[in-house]
Amino acid sequence: MKFNITDVTPETVCIHGQTLAREYAEVVLLNLMVAAMGNNHSGIVTIAETFAAAGLSLEAHPKALRLYNEHLSEIAAEEARALQEAQAHAARCRVETPQEIAEYHAEKARRAREIREHGQRMRTARG
Description:
The chain is mainly alpha-helical. It is built from four helices and three strands, in the order E-E-E-H-H-H-H.
């Protein structure tokens, strides 16, 4: 169900060019539209999104408010999962810079030198 909500003021709201009282739109019209959707959750969410985007209250219909909040939390969870997945892929596909490669080789050479020196100390201690 597509509908346009424009010219929202504290007292009135314009829906499809028809000026209605804001309270009527929030209480009666929201309930009628949600009732017309029945168990069509995606339709209810669409109605709730339109009302919320216009700045109208959804508190008159708890089911619409609950479904809309669940929809928002699902979107947030999906965005967080996608961001985490993108960061994991970026870390997996990361290419080391020449500076990092040089630092790695220097650290590897330092560890090898320490091991050789330790072995040499052990051999001299044994005699």
